[in-house]
Design goal:
Helix content: 55-70%
Strand content: under 5%
Radius of gyration: 14 Å
Shape: globular
Number of strands: 0
């Protein structure tokens, strides 16, 4: 399944985003994704890394980080995080 077809399943349809996502080369996506996922458990840094891609905002980036954590990370990263208003994203 193509990346751009997955990220636009929910929310308001924005046709311009599809074009922006398509401008990212596979190398750029792989580089940004690798850097972002290596930044874990620092979720903020991971989201910031993914938002460097064209057409990828905080909501899309956080969804991708959440999916990555769920499928690939050890159980220590899957524990719920207590919300702190001072350090909220």
């Amino acid at each position: 399944m193509h990346f751009s077809s997955v990220i636009f399943k929910r929310g308001k349809f924005r046709p311009r985003l599809v074009n922006l996502v398509a401008t990212n080369s596979p190398e750029m996506v792989e580089e940004a994704s690798t850097a972002a996922f290596l930044a874990l458990p620092n979720v903020k840094a991971a989201i910031t890394g993914l938002t460097s891609l064209q057409g990828v905002g905080p909501a899309t980036a956080s969804g991708n980080v959440q999916s990555y954590i769920f499928y690939y990370c050890p159980d220590e990263l899957k524990k719920p995080v207590k919300k702190n208003k001072k350090t909220a994203l």
